[in-house]
Amino acid sequence: MSAELRNIAIIAHVDHGKTTLVDQLFRQSGTFRDNQRVEERAMDSNDLEKERGITILAKPTSIEWEGLRINIVDTPGHADFGAEVERILSMVDGVILLVDSAEGAMPQTKFVTGKALALGLKPIVVVNKIDRPDGRPEEVLDEVFDLFVNLGANDEQLEFPILYASGRNGYASEDITAREGSLTPMFELIRDHVPAPGLDVDAPFSFLATLLDRDNFMGRVLTGRVQSGTIKVNDPIRAMDMDGKIIETGRASKLLSFRGLERVPVEEARAGDIIALAGLEKATVANTIADPAVTEPIAAQPIDPPTLAMRFAVNDSPFAGREGDKVTSRLIRDRLMREMETNVAIRVTESADKDSFEVAGRGELQLGVVIETMRREGFELGISRPRVLLREENGQRTEPYEAVVIDVDDEFSGTVVEKMQRRKAELTEMRPSGPGKTRLGFLAPSRGLIGYHGEFLSDTRGTGIMNRLFDSYGPYKGPIEGRQNGVLISNCTGEAVGYALNALEDRGILFVSPQEKVYEGMVIGENAKPDDLEVNPLKSKQLTNFRSTGKDDAIRLTPPKKMTLEQAIAYIDDDEMVEVTPQTIRLRKALLDPHERKKARRKADAA
């Protein structure tokens, strides 16, 4: 059976067309009927993936082509979801590296490709979007080759086959000038270049759990590749950790195989198959599930540690409980523990007061997705400013550094370099990346990048592209200047009045509109000066019996600045929080009472 089976992963940077290409592979292999209505980007299955246009969860799928079964794993392109990637690659025997013909190899591509090459996987390089008018396929191929060399690829991996493709238009060819055709050359290359699993079908059953999710009917469902032997429904199995300690024993109550986008029950699975298995209650990712006769666990890829932490607290604002129905610390705790169970890159620790939890993850985006998912489920939360996780190494404080690649128009490069250097970043590369464009490379402390993205978009008039990737831990760089401006803080509770907001417009940028509910201690705008300012947004016009000679001017307010969740988290300072509810995102001071804030400031100054 395994001779007709190929397991591959598709690697690509965000927006390079990976999920669209998988759509076309489905269509051309006959996985979808001709008259079947299929959503665009079918692999992006959850709401957040569809909205953001990025892949967050790694997902296996399978297609049949001329008697060959190809198991494809769609990997996330963003490094914040890298915990998915590292484990996935142990399930496959080959990788397709997809690069945009104009943008070329990006940092996140480097992240996943480095992991794949280290595992000895043989890559196929596909230059996608070959029909782009600003495409530069030859230069991009040189970049990919240089990248492979830098990542320590062996000679066999450097002899990679190349295809030029347009995922959207559904063709691939070895000819760089091709502008039509089908994906048959890609199917043939997968068949000829990617090795069959070649695993021992006669040995006792063993399986490495690489993905975990919960099902209301089946309980824990572990997905991975069968490494040896055969398993049938109801066979006895046991789970071992990485040290060989037995975690639990049980039976395989359900076996599921992937057919297109569906998970279908099967009676048995053999070495090389990618399956989902139910029947165990404690086993988790990186555990070996095996026949009771097996005593040695399968070596598993360790997961990179979290680099960023945020505090998730019970919402204690005056408006708590008005919009969400899940507001207690017990519900928040249970939900975070469930998240930690299925999302192994996240660590949750409970605070001494039991009212807040420290959640550590790989980046702002990953934690932002957790918060966004929770608010859609009806949770209300108070979120603190992200902080990086420092380490002690040889008696020295170290902090996480990120490799940053920025593509900007030439006229903005000076501003970007200046701002990045203020944030203690080191310039590592500067070169032209196209007509009128410059590519800048930096090594920057993660701390300095928190909150910079919004400022970067303003500085580059929205034309700059920034890509970040965790690089390593390095020496602590000392204090880094944060936000330059103070905030406008409401000193009373009620509904904001247009007359008052009109008077406050001269003070800075407003975040609220008339008739919006505000409370004491809530941040309602950005001050034009560095200090915080307490203001009254409820002040209405004094009505008297006297007629004025001049007509009242109509109030014309500038539309308020509304922030997304990620922007709000990046904007706040250490003494502020984001109040997140299913309908609203508000900024507020951690201490709502102005006297308490003064006391805390005095205490901090004395220290």
Give structural attributes.
single chain; 607 residues; alpha+beta; eleven-stranded mixed sheet; eight-stranded antiparallel sheet; 35 strands
Characterization of the model:
The protein is of the alpha+beta class and 607 residues long. Strand 11 and strand 12 (246-251) form a beta hairpin. It is globular.
Tell me the number of helical segments per DSSP (H or I, 4 or more residues long): 15
Percent helix range? 10-25%
Q: Separation of termini?
A: 70 Å
Global geometry: globular
Strand content: 25-35%
Structural class assignment = alpha+beta
Radius of gyration equals: 27 Å
The tally of beta strands, per DSSP, is 35
Parts with pLDDT < 50 across at least 5 consecutive residues: 32-57
Q: How does the major sheet shape up? A: 11 strands, mixed
> Oligomeric state of the chains?
single chain
Average predicted confidence as pLDDT: 81
Give the SSE layout:
Elements: E1 5-12, H1 18-29, H2 47-52, E2 59-65, E3 68-74, H3 82-88, E4 94-100, H4 107-118, E5 122-128, H5 137-150, H6 155-158, E6 162-166, E7 171-173, H7 184-193, E8 206-215, E9 219-228, E10 230-232, E11 236-240, E12 246-251, E13 254-259, E14 262-265, E15 268-270, E16 274-278, E17 288-290, E18 308-314, H8 329-342, E19 347-350, E20 356-361, H9 364-376, E21 381-384, E22 387-388, E23 391-393, E24 396-409, H10 413-422, E25 426-434, E26 437-445, H11 446-449, H12 452-459, E27 465-475, E28 487-490, E29 494-495, H13 498-504, E30 508-510, E31 517-518, E32 522-527, E33 533-535, H14 565-571, E34 576-580, E35 585-589, H15 594-606
Parallel strand pairs: 1-3, 1-4, 4-5, 5-6, 28-33
Antiparallel strand pairs: 2-3, 6-7, 8-9, 8-17, 9-16, 10-15, 11-12, 11-17, 13-14, 13-16, 18-20, 18-21, 18-22, 19-20, 21-34, 23-24, 24-26, 24-27, 25-26, 28-32, 29-31, 30-32, 32-35, 34-35
